[in-house]
Specification:
The chain is of the alpha+beta class. The protein is built from 2 helices and 9 strands. It has helices at about 40-60, 140; strands at about 5-15, 20-25, 30, 35-40, 70, 75-90, 90-105, 115-120, 125-130. It has a 5-stranded antiparallel beta sheet with strand order 8-7-6-5-9. It has a two-stranded antiparallel ribbon with strand order 1-2. A hairpin with a 4-residue loop joins β5 (about 70) and β6 (about 75-90). The longest helix has 22 residues, at about 40-60. About 10% of the residues are buried.
């Protein structure tokens, strides 16, 4: 399976109407008027679908080694240590979430494992302890 890494800082439309995005490595792309590599919207959608499927498979492989699932407005994390602090400043309430030994659900991130992560948010935070017995396949089904 071929994987390209997108650098979507400059997007334009090519001569035949396809979406042009700079690619760091591509073997089946055409070039647009200013020399950037182009791919059709359909190709981009397929690429993102493949990335999402790869991410889901990775999630299934790693979820068993983590204790907590943390969801914020922007990201989903798996981690083994989590600390939530409610902060107030100037009448506003926000949350500080510190995580250790974490995995980040982000398909555009080249390295999803991080030693520690800190999130500050004004939105809801969901922290759940993962029930590992729910993740195991019963022996009668596996055999």
């Amino acid at each position: 399976m071929r994987h390209e890494l997108l650098c979507a800082s400059e997007a334009s439309t090519g001569p035949s109407g396809e979406l042009c995005i700079e690619l760091l490595c591509a073997s089946e792309a055409s070039t647009g008027p200013s020399g950037e590599l182009c791919m059709s919207a359909e190709d981009l959608e397929q690429y993102e679908s493949e990335l999402e499927l790869q991410l889901y498979r990775e999630y299934k492989d790693v979820v068993g080694i983590f204790t907590y699932a943390v969801e914020t407005e922007r990201r989903f994390y798996l981690c083994n240590a989590v600390d939530l602090k409610v902060r107030t400043e100037g009448g506003d309430v926000y949350y500080e979430v510190s995580m250790g030994d974490a995995w980040v659900w982000d398909m555009y991130r080249p390295a999803r494992f991080v030693k520690s992560a800190k999130v500050l948010t004004f939105r809801d935070v969901s922290i759940e302890e993962i029930a590992h017995s729910d993740l195991q396949v019963p022996k009668s089904v596996a055999e």
